[in-house]
Amino acid sequence: xxxxxxxxxLMALAMVGYIFLWGPIIVLCLYSFNGxxxxxxxxxxxxKWFVELFHTPALIESVLRSLLIATATTVAAxxxxxxxxxxxxxxxxxxxxxxxxxxxxxxxVPYVIMAGALxxxxxxxxxxxLGYPAIIIAHISFSAPLAxxxxxxxxxxxxxxxxxxxxDLGADRLTTWRKITIPLLLPAIFASATLIFPWSFNDFTVTxxxxxIGTTTLPLYLYSMLQYSLKPVLINAISLIFIxxxxxxILIMSYFQRQKQI
Amino acid sequence: MEGNENIxxxxxRNLVKRxxxxxxxxxxxxxVKHGEVFSLLGPSGCGKTTTLRMIAGLxxxxxxxxxxxxxxxxxxxxxxxxxxxxxxxxxxxxxMTVEENISYGLERQGLAKDETRKxxxxxxxxxxxxxxxxxxxxxxSGGQQQRIALVRSxxxxxxxxxxxxxxxxxxxxxxxxxxxxxKRIQHxxxxxxxxxxxxxxxxxxxxxxxxxxxAGRLEQVGIPxxxxxxxxxxxxxxxxxxxxxxxxxxxxKDGKEIQxxxxxxxxxxxxxxxELISDDIVGICVHPERVxxxxxxxxxxxxNQFGGRIVDMTYQGNFVEMKVCLLNNGTDVIIxxxxxxxxxxxxxxxxxxxxxxxxxxxxxxxxxx
Lengths: 262, 369
Known about the structure:
The complex is a heterodimer of chains A (262) and B (369).
Chain A: H1 2-31, H2 48-54, H3 57-90, H4 96-102, H5 105-108, H6 111-126, H7 132-155, H8 161-168, H9 173-202, H10 205-210, H11 218-228, H12 233-260
Helix pairs in contact in A: 2-12, 3-7, 3-9, 3-11, 7-9, 8-9, 9-12
Chain B: E1 10-18, E2 23-32, E3 37-41, H1 48-56, E4 63-68, E5 71-72, E6 83-86, H2 98-108, H3 113-126, H4 142-154, E7 160-164, H5 172-189, E8 192-197, H6 200-206, E9 209-214, E10 217-222, H7 224-229, H8 234-239, E11 244-254, E12 257-262, E13 267-271, E14 281-286, E15 292-295, E16 305-315, E17 319-326, E18 334-340, E19 354-358, E20 365-368
Parallel strand pairs in B: 3-8, 3-9, 6-7, 7-8
Antiparallel strand pairs in B: 1-2, 1-4, 4-5, 9-10, 11-12, 11-14, 12-13, 14-20, 15-19, 16-17, 16-19, 17-18
Helix pairs in contact in B: 2-3, 2-4, 4-5
C-alpha cells in the first residue's frame, strides 16, 4: 500500500535524524573510556580519565562555578520572565506589542555581538564588575526572554475566570496570585527553568566576554583545555559530565512537575 | 429575610456601560426583592452578562449607581461586596480538592478551621455530595461540578447570588434536573438569586420574576406568566416564541375590545386584559398553542376565524407545528399553530389541505411601541 510505503520512508528519515542527534553523543561517551590520550584510535577500556578529572581542582572549581551561575540565573530569569510574561499578557497598555516583540532581541541578535555589547555596557556605562555579577546579569538578559515566551504560551491556555472567581470569593490581588495564578503557571515556570538551566550552564560566548579574570566556568575551562592540553581525551570525560548534569536536573524537575499536576 | 422589606436587595439606577463602539448597558433601572429568584433574560450580546459583572464588581461602570441593600457599592471592590458569582464555566480551581474549593472563601474571611470544616460539611450535605471532599474537580461529573460551584459561593452566605448561565453547558436532561435542584436549594437557603440566561425555558421554570433585556435596555419586567402570556413588545413576544405577531393600526375600539387591521387587510379582534401604559398599540400577538385548527367548512360564528391551506407540518414530539397560509386577498399571511400530536388525523392534516384556523380574542396580547 502506498500510505504504508510512505510511512516506512518517513520512519527511515526519522531514524536518520535520530542517528545524527545521538551518534556524536554516543561516540563521545564511549571514547571517554578510551585508553589513548589523543582519542582518535580506540586502544583499551579505562576509567583513568575520570579519576584524573577528580584530581584536577581547577576543573572541579569550574564545575561548581558553572552550577552556581546557572542556579542563580535560573531562579532570577524564571521569576523575572514569568512576571513579565504575565504583565505583557494581562495588561493592556500602549506599546505592548512593541515591547512583546522586542523581547525577541536578545535571542535573535548574534551572541558575539550581544556579548561584545554587554562587555562595553558593563565596563564603560553601568560599571558592573566583571566576574560573577556580570556573568549572571548577562545570562539573565538572554534567558529571561525564554521564560517570557514559555509563560505567554501557557497564559493563552489558562482560564482567567479562575482569578476573577478568587477575587469574587473574597481574596485580594496578592492572595489570588499566591493561591491561584502561580499554581496555574507552575508548568510554565518549570518548563522555563528546565530550559534556562542548561542554557546558562552551557553558555560559552557571552561568558567568555564578561567573565574577566578568575571566573572560569566549565565551558571556558573546556575551551582552554582544547587549546593547550596534552590530553584531549579528558574533554570527552568532561563532556559526559556536561551531558549528565542537566539531564539529571531535567529528570528531577519533570518528576516534580508530574507530582504537581493533576 | 433579614433587612428592611422596603429596601430592595439590589437596585440599579441609570446604569450605563459603554465599550469602545457600543453601549452595552443603556440607563438600566432595576429592583430585585429580597429572597426572590430574579432572571435577566435576553439574547447573547444584549448586555445581561455585563450587568451581572458590574453588580459583582468585576466590571467598571460608566454612569449610574448600584445599591446592595440600600448601600451604594460603586467603589467597593468585588471582594467586599457581599455578593458572589457562579461563573458560566464554573471556574472551579483545578488544583484544589472539593473541600479546598468550598473553604477558599471562608479561609479568606479568617474563619476558624473546625468552623470552616463544619460549614463545608453542611454545604456538601445540602447538595448531597458528602464523601466527595478529597476529589478534584476533574474527577466529578458535570452536574456534580455544577453543585460544587454553587455551594462554593453559597457557603459565604452572600446577600445575593449572581448566576451567569451556569446550566448552559449541560445536556437537556441534566439541565432540567439542575433547574429543580437550584429551586430547591434557593428555597432552603432563602438567598436572593440573580440569574442571567438566554434560555426562555430555564427562566420561566425557575424565576419568581423575569426582566427581558435587549440592546442594553429593559423591554419588560414581570412574573413568568406575564412575560410569556402577555408580552408587551414585539421583541418580547418574538423572544418568548410567540410565532403569530400582527403589526397594524387599531381601527375600532369598544370598551375592552379592539379591532386591529394589518397592512394586508387582515382584521383581528382582541380583548385588552390588562392595564395599558399607553394607548399606542402597534400590534397583536397570539401563541401558536392557542390557535385552534378546524375543518374547512366549520363555522364557529366567532371572531378571528380564517380559512387557509396547510403549507408545512413539523413533528416536534408532543406536538406538531403547523404552518397555515391564509386564503387572504393576495398577500401571504402565515399562521403557526401547535397541535397536540394525538389530535392529528393523517388525511385531515397534511400539506395542501384546506382548513380553518381560529382563536379567541381573549388569547391575544396587545403589543406597544
